[in-house]
Amino acid sequence: MTARAALAEAARRLEPVSRTPRLDAELLMAHALGVEREALLLGRLGDPAPAAFEPLVARRLAREPIAYILGRRAFWTIEIDVGPGALVPRPDSETLLEAAVTHFGERAPARVLDLGTGPGTLLLAALDQWPGAQGLGIDRSDTALAYARRNAARLGMTERARFARGDWAAGIDARFDLVLANPPYIGTDEALDENVRLHEPHEALFAGADGLDAYRVLVPQIPRLLAAGGVAAVEIGAGQAEAVRALARTAGLSAEVRLDLGGRPRAVILT
């Protein structure tokens, strides 16, 4: 069977488990062939389908995230190695970096803190954006931190990025120009795509009955973390903007909501 025919069949089989079955099939085929997707589409569709393709499709049929199967996910200006035990980077989280770029303008933050860093997604993207910055990433998961350190090494940032195990900002007494956080914000009883629920770490997804437990701990810590002129960009879930803004007001912070590319409230910017 040619790669073209195998792609068509795989896309049909993936329809029940994926919103993007054809794209998934193409990414898996390119991975099996050891080429980029563009090279596959431009010149390799007539090749014999490799034996490695079917096991990859089987993993996707079991709803394993594409990023876990491929081992990497593009985010902002970098690529992040990712796998079981680490939250898959989402394009919507780039809203936090866009807000930070707007805030600093021609300036650049010197010190960056990423709370709940996971595989280092936000911190390493920020350090790539501002090459003169130094950063600290905190997470409770040793598995996620291992990915973060691996990503920093691959991106040549080991001298600029430090990672430590911790519980949000507990024990941190330094101040930072930029604080980033993508905390868990899904309510324990909320419906969630099975591709996510079955494979991604629940501690990075769920935060109590209303999804706000992490914000109740995190937001009151932010005032003591911000340097003069600093800003915090915190990701939020659907319908949480007003609740998080209320927590910010109680903590003595001003809060501005930013929308993602889909027009949904996605980040709260705290100063």
Features:
Helicase, Ruva Protein, domain 3; 7-stranded mixed beta sheet; globular; two-stranded antiparallel sheet; 271 residues; Rossmann fold; 2 domains; alpha/beta
Question: Briefly, what is this?
Answer:
The chain is built from eleven helices and nine strands. It is an alpha/beta fold and 271 residues long.
Question: What does this molecule look like?
Answer:
The protein is of the alpha/beta class and 271 residues long. The chain has two domains: 3-62, Helicase, Ruva Protein, domain 3, CATH 1.10.8; 81-270, Vaccinia Virus protein VP39 (Rossmann fold, 3-Layer(aba) Sandwich). Helices cover 37% and strands 19% of the residues. The chain is built from eleven helices and nine strands. The chain has helices at residues 3-14, 21-33, 37-43, 53-61, 66-70, 94-104, 121-129, 142-154, 194-197, 213-218, 241-250, and strands at residues 72-75, 78-81, 111-115, 134-139, 161-165, 176-181, 226-235, 255-259, 265-270. A seven-stranded mixed β-sheet has the order 5-4-3-6-7-9-8, sandwiched between helices. Helix 1 crosses helix 2, helix 2 crosses helix 3 (37-43) and helix 2 runs antiparallel to helix 4.
